[in-house]
Amino acid sequence: MRRLIFGILFLSVAYSKAQLYVLQDHRPDSADQINIVYDSLPELCDTFYRAFITQNLTNLKPFVPQVKYLKATFDTLSIEYRPEQLVYRQQLMLRLLQKNYKKALKYATKYKIDLSKMEPTNHYYDYSKDQDGNTFCFVTVTTKRRKHTYELKYLAIMLNGNWFIGDELTFVEIE
């Protein structure tokens, strides 16, 4: 009787171990990540500047609203939409931002500008509203590196009380 109980116990432990499978190269799904939302524009600008100087396109994704956030925003504003419109609009925002970022990186490479060694000196915020009451802000960040002064400009938009990066990203030297 003891052998039977011990045998059943041993087989149940061995069987439960055999069922456990651990994925060796697990990569989390980026679609499940939640947007970090910024209710303060200066906080968004500081975080975006740190992401800008890393020279990595994937660091821009958290600054564009996810489809779920856009859906909630459209529902709040009673805007009629189709689900494919939301995906298109979100992807368009991300692609335009990445395209402008590539241009800025190309400019920095052409003139041998080390973005990681630049220091921001001033932030200028030009708030505005359109005819529909949407709030947005043209942000200008002035940076210095040795004797040269540069401007990083972009559009920040407010959606549902939180700030996100829009488009019109430019990076140029000023005199």
Description:
With 175 residues, this protein is α+β, with helices and mostly antiparallel strands. Helices cover 39% and strands 25% of the residues. Strands 1, 2, 3, 4 and 5 form a five-stranded antiparallel β-sheet that branches.
Mean pLDDT: 84
Strand content: 15-25%
Provide the succession of SSEs.
Answer: HHHHEEEEE
How many helices in DSSP terms?
A: 4
Instruction: Give the biggest sheet.
Output: 5 strands, antiparallel
Radius of gyration from CA coordinates = 24 Å
Helix content: 25-40%
Distance between the termini: 92 Å
| Morphology | extended
Output the structural class.
Answer: alpha+beta
Key features of this structure:
extended, alpha+beta, five-stranded antiparallel beta sheet, 25% strand, 175 residues
Can you describe this structure in just a few lines?
The chain is built from four helices and five strands. The protein has 175 residues and is an alpha+beta fold.
Topology, pairings included?
Layout: H1 2-19, H2 41-52, H3 67-76, H4 83-110, E1 119-129, E2 135-145, E3 148-159, E4 162-165, E5 170-174
Antiparallel strand pairs: 1-2, 2-3, 3-4, 3-5
